[in-house]
Design brief:
This protein is α/β, with parallel strands linked by helices and about 170 residues long. It is about 35% helix and about 20% strand. The protein has seven helices and eight strands; from the N terminus they run αβαβαβαβαβββαβα. The protein has helices at about 5-10, 20-35, 55-60, 75-85, 105-115, 145-150, 165-170, and strands at about 10-20, 40-45, 65-70, 90, 120, 125, 135, 160. The strands form two sheets. Strands 3-2-1-4-8-5 form a six-stranded mixed β-sheet, with helices on both faces. Strands 6-7 form a two-stranded antiparallel sheet. Residues about 1-5 have low confidence and may be disordered.
Length: about 170
């Protein structure tokens, strides 16, 4: 896609909070940087890791920002990343997860097709430490009543949501 076309697409910011995931982080970052969608901002936050997370990040090539902070926990780390984000669409990816190559493109298309949607989330694969697929998980459709009564919240890895929804709901606590 040419530079002019990519500017008209909404910017998507993916935040990866990383705490002691040096062994998986390279694959997670590459899965975001190798997306078919051309207009992505990636922010990786080393949340006070005691392993080689910072060293792994320092050796990775690609267009992304990263920084280290004292351990604050996942919720505060994601909130910090989303506060730093410039994207109209926000997402998170755990440091030991990967996005399929068209994940961002498909998520953006779904959000653009229905302005009433606040968020979208995919089916996903459970993988073992060697990234072999253990099983495919088909995420159920969102059901507000089930979420309230049975504490069922199907949103898993690779959730995408509008910045406006994030501003309305506030950060995770």
């Amino acid at each position: 896609m040419n530079q002019k076309a990519s500017i008209s697409l909404p910017l998507v910011t993916v935040v990866i909070p990383a705490y002691n995931h040096a062994g998986y982080l390279r694959e997670a970052v590459r899965s975001v940087l190798n997306q078919s969608y051309p207009h992505i901002e990636l922010i990786v936050i080393d949340d006070g890791s005691t392993d080689d997370t910072a060293q792994v990040l320092a050796t990775l090539d690609g267009d992304f920002r990263w920084f280290s902070q004292d351990n604050a926990g996942q919720s505060q780390t994601l909130a910090r990343g989303w506060d730093e984000a410039r994207g109209e669409i926000l997402a998170y990816l755990s440091a030991d997860d990967c996005l399929e190559s068209q994940a961002v493109e498909v998520a953006v298309a779904a959000l653009q097709a229905d302005p009433a949607l606040a968020a979208v989330y995919p089916d996903f694969n459970l993988i073992d430490p060697a990234s072999n697929v253990v099983r495919r998980v088909e995420a159920p459709d969102f059901d507000y009543a089930a979420m309230l009564s049975n504490v069922i919240c199907p949103i898993g890895p690779g959730a995408f949501f509008r910045r406006s929804s994030y501003r309305q709901s506030g950060p995770w606590r």
